[in-house]
Each structure stands twice: as structure tokens, then as C-alpha cells.
Amino acid sequence: MKNFTVSCFILILVIACTSQPETIIPEWIPYDESEQVAEYAENESRRMRYKQIQSQVSDKNDLWKSIADQISVFSEEDYHRLTPFIYELDIPTIQAHVQSGDLSYVELTQWYLYRIAKFENNNETMTNSIIALNPNAVEQARALDRKRSKTNHLIYGMPVLLKDNINAEEMPTTAGTYLLRDNIADDAFITKQLEDHGAIILGKTNLSEWANFLFLGGPNGFSAVGGQTLNAYGRGVFDTGGSSSGSGVAMAMNYATVAVGTETSGSILSPSSQSSLVGLKPTIGLLSRGGIVPLSSTLDTPGPMTRSVIDNAILLSAMTGKDASDTASIEQSDNSDYIEIAKNGSLKGIRFGVDTRRLSNPLYAAQIEIIKANGGIPVEFDPIEIEFQGFGDMLSADMRIDLPAYLEQYASDSIKERTMKEIVAYNLEDSLLRIPYGQGRFEAASNVEFTPDELAEIKESLNQEAIRFFETPMQALNLDVILTINNWGAGYAAAAKYPCLTVPMGYTDEGQPMGLTFVGRPFEEAKLLGIGYAYEQATKARKAPELNHSIKGIAPEDSTR
């Protein structure tokens, strides 16, 4: 009788365990977008005249297959229960919830994966900001839960998204291009740094293809692999900015704790501003470019894109380190404690250069008064005129050298095209699929030729003129930073190699986000973060996009799994 009772108990237990509802992600079925596209064709902005929204290259169901098992026992009820411990919260607050037992890294990771599927598998809320998802993310989170301690870096256990021109071994690195759609490459240096500190690489974000150096006049945020990224603050209404469009939109959508973008000239600042985020374009050399699909080795840099300044400092600190393979990479002096410096930041006594050309913008003008009210010292100046010819030629010349070098070192053996001319010819074999907006910029760049001396002269001239643009008012007026808007003037900051930090400053009457951008001197990232933190605390301007959070959840179904 005793054995019979035990057997019955075991049978009941087995039935209970195998009859738990399983969360099923419905199949994605491409929809007819012809009406949408016809409307976009009439848009007054050339950047918003979308020819297609959905990718013709990728199947979204491949995304869902990669995470189906990972969220199979995560329900809509779990999603809503955990939302107060995750949604719109900064990393220190999330970590506090983990330490208190309200949350685990597994649950955190599942929440983000579930949220991505919830919104991106719905054609009324999708943003096309995600290109790939890590099939092992939850397993990695489980291991981190077991090993966590109070001495871990704050990035430990945090799901991070990478722009899809940054190598991560578990997912293809495509740069959004048809050519690289199956390219598997070794981890980038910054990817290893993040993983060494315990971060979880959750997935890859969409981007303007080839870092916005493919076509002329087409939309920001489009790639053949990812389709058209849409702004969370107005899908098809507001530009996403580029080229780190997907990183910006994914952060606005709360698809991860933080994201990494890359910038050559405005590609972090623009999408961060357009998605009401904090975006840092660091000084060249502070972060390694090793294992990142290049545009220009002269100006390229990765950088953090986050919903708060403190998260920006945390992500930056987790990525720093000298990379022997990157000639620009520097050894950190005591690895500046960006986190503590940011938290102790102040506006008092800081001299802010106020560009008189921007004062006609009411949001910009309003920030000057806020800064003054918090002890800052705004100083108006009229910008000087500089000679700035050859910027595009420099980028083209660099890409002709740097892109083949990346492909030789990292591209999968199956990818035979290694020069820009070969890639141009490859794209023409099926232009509707591979380059629906053409490849005018790529074609022009593939034909630019300079001698080493000529290129060096162009680079030196641009650098010196850009430095003169900033240093003339900074030295004359003893300025700490210069204030601008979004990515306005980003080319000058890029050529000068001056770091920039953009922080949300509000929204236009139509609801479009805008950022106040602080430009500092090389390797003054800590100073910028301190000023940015103090400004953020004084304004608290960021608001989450108004999405329909009550949309139907992912379907739970009974299963004998």
C-alpha cells in the first residue's frame, strides 16, 4: 500500500510538471505594406520616404526560434509581475532588486526577450530594431545567478545589445548587409570586455547599412537584413537618426538595460537624441575598435547608448581597456571611476559655451536658463568660420583601406568579395533585394584614390581646423564645454576627436525628442558624465514613448513538454 501511495504521488508530480502552460510565440506572417509605403512616398522629408518596411532578406521567425525555449515557461503574468522591477529603471536599481531577491538575472533576461517578442511580433508596434538574439542568453544568465556576489561590476548579469557591426561569436555580424548576412566572426575586443565583466550579450540591433555609408539620400535606419527601423516616439512619423538607429530605438523600447552604438560622425549622437537617450561619443582610442566593421579608422569609435547618465558611465567603464591590435587604443590612467565621478557631478561654476546660432531654438534657449538656475555659467559666443573641405573624401579613402582589412581578418570563408569594387558588383547582381536605395555613396567611395601623403594632408587639415573651431571660443572665454543640439556640428567634433555627450532636453510641440549635447576636450569623458548627470537630475526630461502596453501578450498554450 505504501509503495502504491508513493507511486501515485510521483505520477501526480510528473503530470503537474508536464502540464504547465507553455508560452508559444505565434508565427510571424509578413503583411501587405503597400499602403504604408505609398503614404511614405509623399513625405516632405527625403529621409522618411520609405520604399519598404519589412526585411526581404530575414525571416522574423528565425528570431523567435532562437528564443522560443528560453521563454517557454515565462508567461504574460510573469511579465507583468516583474515589470515594476525592470521597466525604465537604471542598472543600480535593477541590481538592488536582484540583491533583495525580487528578481534574478534569468528573470531579467527572460523579461527582455519576452518583451521583444511581444512588441516586435506585432505589426502595429514593431520597430525592426532587433536583428539577432542570443540563443544562449538565459543559460548564461543562469550561470551568472549561481556565481553572483556583492563585488561584481555593476554590468554583471545585465543584458546588453550590440549594434550589428560589432562582432559577437554567437550571432552573425552583418553590418545590415546582404553580403554579410551569415558572417560569423570572433568577439570584438569590447564584447570580450563586457563578457569578462559578466554582461550578457542579449542580441544585435539594426542600423543604417554599412554605418550609413551605402546610399545617397535614403532613410536612416534601413538595412537589407533588418528592414526599416521605426522611431518608438512616432513610427514612421519621426526619423530614427543613424547609423546606430536600432540601438537607439531598442533602448527607447526597453529591450535591454543598455546598448552599444558606433560613431564616425554623429552616428551615436543622432539616434540617441531622436530616441530621448543619453549617448556618449568617446575620444578616439578610449574604446577599442577591434572586431568592429569599420567606416574610418581615423574617426570610428564605439560608445554607450542608455536611458540614464549613470548607466552610460557603467557601460563605458565595462568596455574600457587597451587593445594591442588597435593602434589608437590607449592605456587608461587608473581607469577613471566614471561611475563615482558622474554621481558627484555638478553644474556649479562650469562655464558653458552657448552657440548664438542655436538660441532661436526654444528648447535650447530654455536649457540655458535651467543651467544658470543651477549654478552654471552660460557664456554666449559666435562660432568662427573654418575651412572644412575633404571630409567625405577622407571617409571614402579610409573605407577603401579599412573595410577590406576587416574582411580579411574576420569575415567567414564563404564571403569571397573583399574589396569595395567587388562588393559593388556583387550588389548589382540583385539590386532590388540587396540595395533597394542604390549604393551611390559606396560606388563613389570605391573610386576615390589618394596617395598616402595626400590623405595624410587632408586628415591633418581637417583635424587642425576642427580643433580651431572649438578652441577659439574655449580659450578666449575659458569655457569648460560647448553646448549644441542633437548631432549638430558632429562632423567638427569628429574631426577634432573631441568627445560629446547628449542628454535628453525635452520634446518639440509635435512630440519629437531632442538632446542637449555637451562637447568637451579629449579624454574628458568623466567630466562630461559629471556635468551630464547633474543636468539630468535638474531636468529629468526623458519620458518613455507612449506605447500601447496592454497589447495582447504572447499566447500561452497547454503542453506536455
What do you see in this structure?
- With 561 residues, the protein is an alpha/beta fold.
- The protein has one domain: Amidase signature (AS) domain (Amidase signature (AS) enzymes, Alpha-Beta Complex).
- The protein has 21 helices and 15 strands.
- The protein has helices at residues 2-18, 34-40, 60-67, 76-82, 91-100, 105-120, 137-147, 189-196, 209-212, 245-252, 269-274, 309-319, 338-343, 362-373, 391-410, 420-428, 431-434, 440-446, 452-476, 490-496, 525-539; strands spanning 22-24, 130-133, 159-163, 200-205, 222-223, 227-228, 258-263, 278-281, 301-306, 351-355, 377-381, 481-485, 500-507, 513-519, 555-557.
- The strands form 3 sheets. Strands 2-4-3-7-9-8-13-14-12-10-11 form an 11-stranded mixed beta sheet, with helices on both faces.
- α15 packs across α18 and α19 crosses α20.
- The longest helix is centred in the last third of the chain and has 25 residues, at 452-476.
- It starts with a helix and ends with a strand.
- Mean pLDDT is 94; it is low at 1-18 and 557-561.
